[in-house]
Design a protein that fits this description.
The chain is α/β, with parallel strands linked by helices and 240 residues long. The chain has one domain (8-239): Carbamate kinase (3-Layer(aba) Sandwich). Helix content is 36%, strand content 18%. The chain is built from eight helices and eleven strands. It has helices spanning 15-19, 28-42, 73-97, 119-127, 145-155, 189-195, 202-210, 225-230; strands spanning 8-13, 47-52, 102-106, 115-116, 131-135, 160-165, 170-171, 183-184, 186-187, 215-219, 237-239. A nine-stranded mixed beta sheet has the order 4-3-5-2-1-6-10-11-9, with helices on both faces. The protein has a two-stranded antiparallel sheet with strand order 7-8. Helix 2 crosses helix 3 (73-97).
Length: 240
């Protein structure tokens, strides 16, 4: 049996990844597919932490200034952080039904529904075989969940950030809109920053670059892809 090349991963899931074919909200079949894939890699003894976005419910940046409701940015970002908790609880519920023990840890304390994020406790959960779901971003406005994924990955000593998208890697332009967009199999951090490629936001990419943490961008819609990434198959785009 093939062995995983990563012992501990941070899986970054956007809110849009959870909505499936819906225009908003959460599609249950997507949660089931993600949970099955996570169980597959847990069965290979890979430690899994997850960072969730909330674009399927509420995105802070889109509701500020000329972009939306003219809401104060900090207020909008806090609303987005609370929305990630909804996604986290939904994913936890399906993971537990699949037989995967989990803990939801939040950067904004809500004691009734999730544990406060404590770094050493998060690492202990992973060591005990639990999947840890990080919600509420970094707990600070003006920072994206991409940055939260990079920060948490560094804190828990993850080997890689695995970023799930709707396409099979990083392209020179949106392949769903630009027919001749070029796919990159491998990229350097600095190229991502210089070219403004939409891998993760600049703060997250810079954090990964400073700490030599690789990022693998892959298509979540093809079931089994998370396992393929963990086993080191040539899939998606590797940023290193």
């Amino acid at each position: 049996m093939a062995k995983p090349i990563y012992k501990r991963i941070v899986l970054k899931l956007s809110g849009e990844a959870l909505q499936g074919r819906k225009s908003h909200g959460i599609e249950h079949s997507v949660l089931v597919s993600i949970s099955r894939q996570i169980k597959e890699i847990r069965d290979l003894n890979v430690d899994v932490a997850i960072v969730l976005g909330a674009g399927n419910i509420f995105r802070g940046q889109e509701n500020t200034g000329s972009l939306g409701l003219d809401m104060d940015r900090a207020v909008a970002d806090y609303m987005g952080m609370l929305a990630t908790m909804i996604n986290g609880l939904a994913l936890q519920n399906v993971l537990e039904d699949t037989g995967v023990p989990t803990r939801v840890m939040t950067a904004i304390e809500i004691q009734k529904i999730a544990e406060p994020y404590i770094r050493r406790r998060a690492i202990r959960h992973l060591e005990k075989g639990r999947v840890v779901i990080f919600v509420a971003g970094t707990g600070n406005p003006y920072f994206t969940t991409d940055t939260a994924a990079a920060l948490r990955a560094m804190e828990i000593h993850a080997d890689v950030i695995v970023k799930a998208t709707k396409v099979d890697g990083v392209y020179s332009a949106d392949p769903l809109k630009v027919k001749n967009a070029k796919k990159f199999d491998q990229l350097k951090y600095i190229d991502v920053l210089k070219k403004g490629l939409k891998v993760m936001d600049a703060t997250a990419v810079s954090l990964c670059m400073d700490n030599k943490l690789p990022i693998v961008v892959f298509n979540l819609n093809k079931e089994g892809n998370i396992k393929r990434v963990v086993l080191g198959k040539k899939i998606g785009t590797v940023v290193s």
